[in-house]
Amino acid sequence: MAQIHRLHIQDEAKNCSADQFYSFLKTERTKLPQVFPLGFKSVDILAGDGKSVGTVRLSKIAMGTPNVVTVTDKTEAVDDESRTLGFSVIDGDLLRMYTKFEYKLTVTPLVTQAGDKQSCLVEWFVEYEKENEDVLNPTEYVELASNITKTMGSHHDRMA
Q1: How many folded domains does the chain comprise?
Q2: Which residues form the Bet v I/Major latex protein domain (predicted)?
Q3: Domain that holds residue 35
Q4: Which tens digits make up the pLDDT trace of 13-31?
C-alpha cells in the first residue's frame, strides 16, 4: 500500500494584504508569468471560470534551465471566509513521479508593527504519494511555493 506524505511551509508576503494575495491566486493565476516570470512560463484556463471549484488550469513551470514542467490542476476547494484554496494535480509531468499530488493554501492577515502596512502569512500544505520509493520528495515544488509567496508579496501593486 502506498504511503501518503505531507509537507507544510509558511512564509510571509510582506506589504501585501491577505485579501490581495488570496484574490490574486483565486481569480488571476493566469497573470503569474507576468509577476513571476522565472517560475512560470504560462498559466491557461482549460475549463471553468478561473475562480470557482471545478476550474482546470494548465501551467508551464520553469524547474531549472532548460526544464519546463507541465502541470494541470483542478480547483477542489474555495473558502473565501478562511481564504483557503485547494487543488489537485490531474495531469502532467508531476504525475509521472507521484500518483497523487494535492496542495492547499491558506492566507492569514498580519499587521506590521508600524500598523500602516499589511502583510500576510501564507501556509502551503502539500499531500502526495510517490510512484515508487526511489522518487525524491518534491522539495523543488515546495521551494517554488515559497518563492511565489515572497515574489507576489513584493509585487502586490501588480495584483490590484
Answers
A1: 1
A2: 2-157
A3: 4-159
A4: 887 889 999 999 999 999 9
Write down the pTM of the prediction: 0.88
List the CATH number of the domain containing 12. Answer: 3.30.530.20
Grid coordinates in use for 150? 515572497
Question: How confident is the model over 33-56, as pLDDT tens digits?
Answer: 998 888 899 999 999 999 999 999
Q: What is the C-alpha to C-alpha distance for residues 113 and 61, in angstroms, rounded to an integer?
A: 36
CA angle 21, 27, 79 (to 5 degrees): 75
Alpha-helical runs (H) found in 8-138: 18-27, 32-35
Distances from the Cα of 41 to the Cα of 21, 55, 64, 70, angstroms: 20, 19, 12, 10
